[in-house]
Amino acid sequence: MSLEKHPDLKVIIQSLSMIFIVIGVLAVVPLIVTAYYNEALTPFVLISVIPILLGVAIELLFKGEIELQVKHAAIAAALTYLLASALGALPFMYYGMGFLDSFFEAMSGWTTTGLSMIADVESMPRSILFWRSFMQWLGGVGVIVLMLVILAGTGSAASKLYQAEARKDRLKPRLLSTVRLIWWIYIIYTVLGILLYYVAGMSVFDSVNHTMAALSTGGFSTNNLNIQGFNSLGVEVVSIFLMLLGATNFLVHYKVLTGNRLAFLKDIEARTMYILAFAGAVALSLKMPSVRGALFQSVSALTTTGFGSINFTVLDDFSKLLMSFLMIAGASTGSTGGALKIIRLIIVVKLIFWWIQEKILPEHAVITRRISGVELSDADLEEPAIYLLLYLFIFSMGVLIFVYLGYPTIDSIFEVASAQGDVGLSVGLTGASLHPVGKLVLIFGMWIGRLEIIPVLILAQSILKIKPKKKSKDIL
Amino acid sequence: MNSNRHGDLKIILQSLGMILISIGILTVIPLLVAAFYNEDLTPFFFVSLIPMVVGMLFVRFIHPDTEFQARHAAIAAALTYLIISFLGAIPFTYYGMSFLDSFFEAMSGWTTTGLSMIADVEVLPRSLLFWRSFMQWLGGVGIIVLLLTILTTGRAGLRLYQAEARKERIKPRLISTARLIWWIYIVYTLGGVFLFFIAGMSTFDAANHSMVALSTGGFSVKNASLAAYNSLEIELVAIFLMLLGGINFFVHYKMLTGDKGFLLKDLQVKAMVAILLISTLIIGLTSLGFRDALFQTVSALTNAGLSTANIAVLNDFSKSILTLLMIIGGSAGSTSGAIKIIRMLIIVKLIYWWIKQTLLPEHAVFSRRLGGIEMNQELTHEATVFALLYFVILGAGALSLMFLGYSGADSVFEVAAAQGNVGLSAGVTGSDLNPFGKIVLIFNMWVGRLEIIPVLVLGQSLFGLRRV
């Protein structure tokens, strides 16, 4: 197959090579950790060497400038998560897990989900535990960058708001410097988080891992009982703080750090998130035994982190469904969180509200449709609604498959919402004993949820169209 | 403002008055049935007399001075269902049921839902059974359509007509449209009675089941619903009638006036057949036999709620599929409830167009047509907003039932059955249901039948929500 005939493919492979090299270089960090703890180096050498070799080989093979379009970025992103998960699965397989379980674990890591196939994490080598957290940490910052690239190109309502916001604050328009800035903020927060956890009483190793998992809204823990295992108010408070940090738009962080202290209260998304988390906590405490647990779980579900401070197996259906709603709502745009995203929720609620107003008001009354000062057109309003419906459609297909496999309806709803929102809470279905089809459904949910659906569709379309390309010329 | 509000109230009361009178007149029919079976006439006297007197007072002494607007129609429609449910509750209360249960039963009747508070219907007097079916029969064709046959002010009529979730105008002139719907409905009902009779039912059973099948209501005079007969013929007749009820009356009109092929041209009918085939196949293969699977899917999709199988013992998967069908519902312009197939089609198309747009080069233009009609933003907005609102209310209802301790699958099923005016039950509904749960289901039936908006308008005018 000659790549000259497929310029798109060439561009995609080239951009993948850059991502490979970045992953390979960064994988040196877990390698050092492994060396420090004197554990088997082989899997992490592989993870570092394979992508670097592949990347360099591609660089050498396909020289030349690349002109990256949104379409390419989307396909590359969709493929990246698959390839990175295959790669990330290696250490787990090295330690004896099956491929599907390992792939699941890695996908759950990169997508910052936090669902796990490993029942007893405490018996795992520290390097493996660090690798899990590290994937989430990278995945968290990675998705912000990813969405900067893709959002900027789609022209959707969310991106319009996002861009307007960026312009208003004269945030450096160049992508690269924005990315660098986000990295710095992210690293500073990580260091801060480690300190805080340490002060709250965790060991250094636990602090590092939990900070990475909390800030990236990932949710992997080094404790079998997750946060519940620490049974410490201090740890829970620090976790809540870090989860909220991770789920807030990083542009807002930038503003706060550069002097605009109250920016996090002015941002409509951040504000709504705090209100929703609080409302969720109040509603959950109707049925949950402790208010403390209710608040923690509400924040954990809404920020799509997936930390657990309570025993999930005794949860009643009401709390499960409520938490599922929070998991579907999700975090802010431009954050490490997943799911629908709060701005879409706001737009959809406004859409419904304006539509009702239109029906109630005398005919021909004019309604201005603004959200935080940005005027929205009909098409802008419709996009989030369609996205939500598509999200719900994919979600219900997943739930149906789970129910078909024989799992209870409410548990299926919870588990699929958790995967698709990249949350990671589980009522006990996820585990090595889950039906393989169920594992595949959750992997798919995590993948499509993290990419916000569209890249997966673009990938599917390009795969399906590569073959008939020769016959039909009318495609382009 | 105050005088304006006064005017609003007057015009709403006047239209309510007219609805009450017509209800009063029609209640003579159950009165006759009660007389025929030599049963207690008192409750039906009340149901007939009270609305007539009150209605006449309203019409006689209230002289509205404002123009009838969409807002008034919405409020009148929302209030109508509450008021007639009070009226409809009288016979049940008379025979000893609690008020809440009676109100539930009546709301379930008028909204053609079919959920019931009565465990043993076979011991009830025949007049009461007839009253249940009769409410559904009237509710199916639409209380407002009923009014239109009497009403003569065209503009007001149109508003009311739309407020009761009917969009298409079969004929330009509204009154004749309403009359036409009535004629088609009556002819079908008589046909149904005849068919059920042939299939082996007694006259009384045939009359009742014909009314509830055609109106997609679902009350039965048997405790086990149609399972009691265990007869293939009866089930086939019921399926036929439920499908008739679930199809847009515009299609019936076209069919009856000579365009025989129109049935197959209608988009909603085509989608309905496809959905039914697929879900029958799925349920047939996974749990129930094909005979019951077909019956239950038709019953769920058309929102009828008759059953030949015990839903409570179904597995979660079949319940989920049935729940989805109950949420989709029948055709717009039919007697069924829920989101309606046409809105679902619009949404599916919208998602398809959105994906297409994302995949195509920017600014590529393609036509957005559905069934040969160009879809504008107004139509697509209506469908998406309605579906989302529907989900929100459904979610809130299901959450409430779960709060009371019912399982997730059953709660979703039951609320979907109430809000879609279906009437299948997973076993939650019954007189032992928590009063709060009963109120939730009553609310869902009410909101579902009116297609949400009139209830919102009523809420807004009652609580004076801010008008920006």
Structure notes:
The complex is a heterodimer of chains A (476) and B (468). Chain A is built from 21 helices and two strands. Chain A has 476 residues and is an all-alpha fold. Chain A has one domain. Chain A starts with 6 loop residues before the first helix and ends in a 10-residue tail after the last helix. The relative contact order of chain A is 0.10. Chain B is built from 21 helices and two strands. Chain B has a two-stranded antiparallel sheet with strand order 1-2. In chain B, α1 runs antiparallel to α3 and α4 crosses α5. The interface between A and B is large, with 52 and 48 residues.
| Amount of helix of chain B | 55-70%
Task: Return Rg of chain A in Å.
Answer: 22 Å
Structural class of chain B: mainly alpha
CA-based shape of chain B: globular
Q: What percent of the residues of chain A sit in helical stretches (DSSP H or I)? A: 55-70%
User: Stretches of chain A where pLDDT falls below 50 for ≥5 residues?
Assistant: 468-476
Strand order of the largest sheet of chain A: 1-2
Beta percentage of chain B is under 5%
Chains forming the largest contact: A-B, 52 and 48 residues
Task: State mean pLDDT of chain A (0 to 100 scale).
Answer: 86
